[in-house]
Design a protein that fits this description.
mainly alpha
């Protein structure tokens, strides 16, 4: 299984990053440009960000976990479609394809997040008072949530092609309600009551708790994120196991 997963990871590296100029450089440039764009736009309208005084750091702590979740969830959801030719071999299963995509993309995003946050601290000469345990917890929960959502969507998108379009339409506001732009605490009470049930909001809050030592993020519940992730993962894998062969014929 280990050899199969490593082989699939090497194939993904070649197909995802080997075809574009610069390869892995784009994996770093894309989030950097995203954070830079948010910083420029909001610095024109606001005097200071929601936390601290540095716009790039604030938006990086919100945008990077969101991008990590979105990318891993989409990669897991399309794992069967991406590796369909290899699934004809008895030694390759859909679990292998999922593991390969999860491990590779989680490591890639964790590295990118580390490089971007370090770069912001160095460029702007910010004091380093990070809580590495909280940052690691945020990355772990974000990955777990992405795997759960991705596994459930893997079955739904493969079994019902129209679901993929419906999912993308339904989740477009996710960027606005995940705490990327504004803190949860400054939102109206009615908005808070609804936003709390977005598990990605909790992952972003934990990330900011790790970067900003004075930010407590009392609304955060790691147990809620874990519960949602495990439930989605359980039902996703259950449906995939029961309908695996049928899905390959579609």
């Amino acid at each position: 299984m280990l050899r199969t997963v490593v082989a699939l990871m090497l194939r993904e590296i070649a197909t995802t990053y080997g075809r574009s100029a610069g390869g892995y450089i784009w994996a770093v440039l894309e989030p950097v440009l995203g954070v830079a764009l948010l910083s420029v736009l909001f610095s024109m309208a606001l005097r200071s960000p929601g936390l601290g005084t540095n716009f790039p750091l604030f938006y990086a702590t919100g945008f990077l976990p969101f991008a990590m979740f979105n990318d891993i969830a989409n990669k897991v959801a399309t794992s069967i479609r991406f590796s369909r030719p290899f699934l004809a071999y008895p030694c390759v299963t859909f679990v292998d394809t999922m593991l390969a995509r999860v491990v590779l993309n989680a490591l890639t995003h964790a590295t990118v997040i580390g490089l971007v946050l370090t770069g912001i601290h160095v460029i702007y000469q910010l004091p380093v008072m990070t809580n590495m345990l909280a940052i690691f917890e945020s990355l772990l929960l974000t990955t777990l949530l992405a795997v759960g959502v991705g596994a459930f969507n893997c079955y739904m998108m493969t079994a019902f092609p129209v679901y993929e379009r419906a999912w993308h339409i339904a989740t477009r506001p996710l960027f606005l309600v995940s705490g990327v732009f504004f803190l949860y605490e400054i939102m109206p009470a009615k908005a808070q009551a609804l936003m709390w049930f977005n598990p990605l909001l909790h992952c972003v809050g934990i990330m900011r708790r790790g970067v900003y030592p004075t930010y407590e993020a009392n609304y955060v519940s790691a147990l809620f994120v874990i519960s949602v992730s495990v439930i989605l993962l359980f039902f996703g894998l259950l449906m995939l196991v029961r309908n695996y062969r049928i899905l390959l014929e579609r």
